[in-house]
Write a structure and sequence with these properties.
Elements: H1 2-15, E1 19-35, E2 40-46, E3 50-52, E4 56-57, H2 60-64, E5 68-72, E6 76-77, H3 81-90, E7 99-109, E8 113-122, E9 125-136, E10 139-147, H4 154-163, H5 165-168, E11 175-188
Antiparallel strand pairs: 1-2, 1-4, 1-11, 2-6, 3-5, 5-7, 7-8, 8-9, 9-10, 10-11
Length: about 190
């Protein structure tokens, strides 16, 4: 009987499925900045995203923890070329460095939802930002909020507020919603 149990355990472990997750395609980075006293959102992203990390792993945590993204600030894309030029000239060009760097530090959750910690370096100032993620219909998406004050970017914020004073009705908010997404394929062999 003991031999039978050992043999069955060995056979079951050999036949156990090897599961994996795979990032397919490019990563999309999104942001929403806010203007006017009534806090109207302006959406955008970046035309080029430099991702360094695994493309496949046995778990979502192994896929993402340690992954980095670099964004050139002159690649900002709000789908309005005049706005993009103003963002570069009156906001990003006033910061130290022309790169936004991020790194996923940790991930807690399961294959459908959870929380990750993202280090965001903007204006050469780093801040850990909690983000909440979900996986739905083959798409991984994460959302969080940064405060420009945490990145010592208030002079740049003041500059863009002045440059766009009439459009913003004198108010540009210091909180910016951020997010990223990519297609995720899951499977077992």
């Amino acid at each position: 009987m003991r031999v039978f149990i050992i043999v069955m355990t060995a056979l079951l472990s050999l036949s156990a499925a090897e599961c994996h997750v795979e990032k397919t395609g490019d990563i999309s980075v999104q942001w929403t900045a806010y203007k006017t006293p009534s806090k109207i959102g302006v959406n955008g992203g970046f035309r080029a995203v430099n991702y360094q990390g695994a493309d496949h792993a046995s778990t979502l945590e192994k896929l993402l923890v340690g992954a980095t993204v670099q964004l050139q600030t002159n690649n900002v894309d709000s789908k309005n070329s005049e706005r993009d030029a103003k963002l570069v000239q009156f906001f990003f060009n006033l910061m130290s460095g022309q790169m936004i760097e991020t790194k996923i530090l940790s991930l807690e959750g399961d294959a459908t939802k959870g929380k990750l910690m993202l280090e965001v370096i903007l204006n050469r100032k780093g801040k850990n930002v909690p983000m909440y993620y979900e996986v739905k219909e083959g798409v991984f998406s994460a959302k969080g909020v940064i405060d420009l004050n945490d990145h010592h970017a208030m002079s740049a914020l003041k500059s863009i507020t002045i440059a766009c004073y009439d459009l913003h009705k004198g108010k540009t908010w210091n909180d910016v919603s951020i997010g990223f997404s990519f297609n995720l394929k899951e499977g077992c062999k």
